[in-house]
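Async update (no meeting this week)

Hi team, since we skipped the sync, here's where things stand on the single-chain job. The sequence we agreed to prioritize is pasted below, unchanged from the tracker. I ran it this morning and attached the output directly underneath so nobody has to dig for it. Comments welcome in thread, and please keep replies under the output.
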Amino acid sequence: MKSFKLIFVTLIVAFFTSSMSAQNGNIQGSISDENGIYVPGATVIIEDLNMGVVSDNDGKFTFISVPEGTHQLLIKYLGFSDVSREIEVTAGKTISIAINLNSESLELEGVEVSAYGLSGQARALNTQKNNTNITNVVSTDQIGKFPDANIGDAIKRIPGITMQVDQGEARNIIVRGLSPQLNSVTLNGSRIPSAEGDNRNVQMDLIPSDMIQTIEVNKAVTPDMDGDAIGGSVNLITRTAPQGFRVSATAGSGINFITNKRILNGSFLVGDRTNDGKFGWMLSASVNDNDFGSDNVEAEWSDEFEYNTGIQDSEGEDIIEEMGVNPYATEYEIRTYLVQRIRRSFSANLDYKLDDNNSVYLKTMYNWRDDRENRLAYSNKILDGEDISSDDFTIDANNNLIGFPVEAKRETKGGIPGGRNQNARLEDQRMQNYSIGGDHLFGKLKFDWMGSYAKASEERPNERYITYESEFGIDRSLDTKKPYFTPQNIEDTALDNYELDEITEEYQYTEEEDINAFLNFELPADFFGNGNGIIKFGARTRLKSKNRDNNFFEYSPLSSQYDTMDLVDTRDYSDEDFLAGSQYQAGYFVTPEFLGDLDLENGDEFKKESVPDEYLRANFDVDEDVYAGYIMTTQKLTDKLTLLAGLRIENTQVSATGNRILDEEDLVGEVTDKSSYTNILPGVHFKYDLSDKTILRFAWTNTLSRPNYVDLVPYVDVVTEDEELYLGNADLDPTTSMNFDLMAEHYFKSVGILSGGVFYKKIDKFIYTSVFETTDDFYGVGTTDFDVYQPQNGDNASIFGAEISFQRKLDFLPGFAKNFNVYFNYTYLSSDAEGIKNEDGEERDDLDLPNTSPNMFNGSLGYNSKKLSVRLSANYSDSYIDEIGGNPFEDRYYDEQFFLDFNISYAITNNLRVYADLNNITNQPLRYYQGQKDRTMQMEYYEKRLTFGIKYDLFKK
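Output:
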């Protein structure tokens, strides 16, 4: 309360003293290139006054309380000669100036300007160089140099970043080895909501890369940023209106080699500004239609086996014999995915300059993705021990279980016919964000504000499954890297031996809404007399609500016409070119068209029954309100040393409602729990300029991560048959981290960088799923000694890392070789986690923190002449533990990945360019393994993808 009183008093004083002295005025300026595109990250200096500022993402800069008279503005920009402009300051007024950087200002021939204006690499590196905190910045034309369709694939090129993929596209971001839910993603500074039901992950593959102007990865956050960013904060900045007319368009096509089906993509952008420069607008849209798929094999492993001895005990119960064997696959599955993914994005950004001191803006974005999927899954699962006799299995001399009986299933996933479903499972994901804000100058007081509404949703209507099952014996291959089962008698696999197991239809809907508002105030405050000092303070509110509403129904036929698989429409989905290996042949499945045409709501043909155990635990309502305030100051301690220090306070209030369930399907009632907590987050950043192009940075910051929503829901699910309890935990504490960063950067005149640094994170109260036993009947009669699964806080974890990055044009080489450029970065991580207990309640001391890849590498070799651009790009991430099991044998690992991509473009004219991209040259699969590297849990292949097209860009200033 005292801190808020201090802020209030400071505001009152500021307003009464904000009128400029009789001898002072203000300067508001903007910097753009020769095409009217704003230039961020430029240093603007008034040397005789020892004053300096940096242009923001919109190319704007402000000087406050400048003495009346004539002054020289000096503009410094990496890769350009210094630019000087004279300006006359009038007392009591704000003077506007527009500064243009053009090709005549070039310091070196290697800096790209051409018809496309200032290179995005120059924009990005100048912004990164002049930021006080540790960041990585990637601009729109850097993104365009890589063959990345979505923003997730573009972000993975940044040092310390790796991505988890979905159907071959980068979806979930891992920053410096921290899980996706430990990082924040914002759009123009406003938090992006998540449509994921189980976590806070933002689907990065939902946003097309060509809708974004700049990507900022803040690895050391400042007090004016949200504190929930243990790994880092990723800010996506949309395009803003140019100073003059601009129109840009892309049209392309391509082919997915896994399905030999087409790709279609297109985008356009148009913007302009009125002659008086006050009103600017930018409209853009993008569409990508991708018809592809994947080839998948999955397995689950055990080193225990049991069978029925055929002997009864004294109570007449069969005696089940348990024995240890070499690890074997208890379940084996071949999956064929057929996917069509249509991504659409729309954006409209407006800004209006009321006068020299006041401007307002509106920024909007709407992303909509339809994901249609058919999945054909053939699975074999070992029978329960009570159903296996001593004659049903074979163990060889080396204790390998090589033959046993299985339950075999053939399952088709689909949807209803027509409309957008088209006999496929439709996943409709949408993310929308609408922000309105303003920038104001009241004498010495700078004031900016923003309010936003954002919503993310995922809807899966009429998702249908039909499954047929049989039983027979199999022989197991001893190849654990490529597990494979062979039927002992091929006649057992005939379609008339497969009987109907179930027909189901489900509906899933997840929605998250965010209302954000913030206020920022900034005043000049030069405590050390070295110029450029400021004090900044503000407040922020984020009101979030999230709910999930699923249902699930089973349909039983009232006639025998569906009893066996030979009675229904089937199709052979075998593929001799199956990417996991030709031995994996899927066989026959019910066609999606037949499944879609079933009239399941016809009571004369089907009996409909709800299946609560499929959705009761999943449904929840959560409200989370965050109220934050901060104060910080930036001071020049010397001519070379800059300090940024401050404090942020965040209060979180949570209300979570879940279901109390008995035996998975009986709803006893709802349970609501409320909690609140406050986090105090101090931070200090030092920036030391060894020279104009060499910088040292140090940061000490404190951050947090809030628990996943599903973990907060106070559900209680008693599964009597399995003697298991599943509990939520509304009392979870947030995970917190104390972070230390040290970084050195050297910038080249030819617009390049060499940087390196180390970082350390001390993490407290990380969250994991604990397994333990009840000691009494608290959860109902007879629940003593039940196994309990509940998310809980661990003790602590630590991460140590080092990263190095290098990029530059090789302009020191002779002849055509000077057009080559290189880019690479490498990140090393070491981590450990404490306080995690195994299934026996003993603490494990052999664990890394989940999702921490020990080695990450990005690299590219490019060639750029005036017309031709060629680039070969590589991306590598090492294997890491993904999910902690009850013991080391059960731990799941995400395997290493190496992607290789190639792209080429040629400028036909200054405005017209053709391009071609080839992705995933290495046919890199998504792979998980259990316990050790040669024990495959999942391998999913996507093949190569070729796209090509034409780009047009016209500027008229």
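Quick observations from my side:
The longest helix spans residues 2-17.
Confidence is low (pLDDT under 50) at residues 1-21, 104-118.
Reply here if anything looks off.
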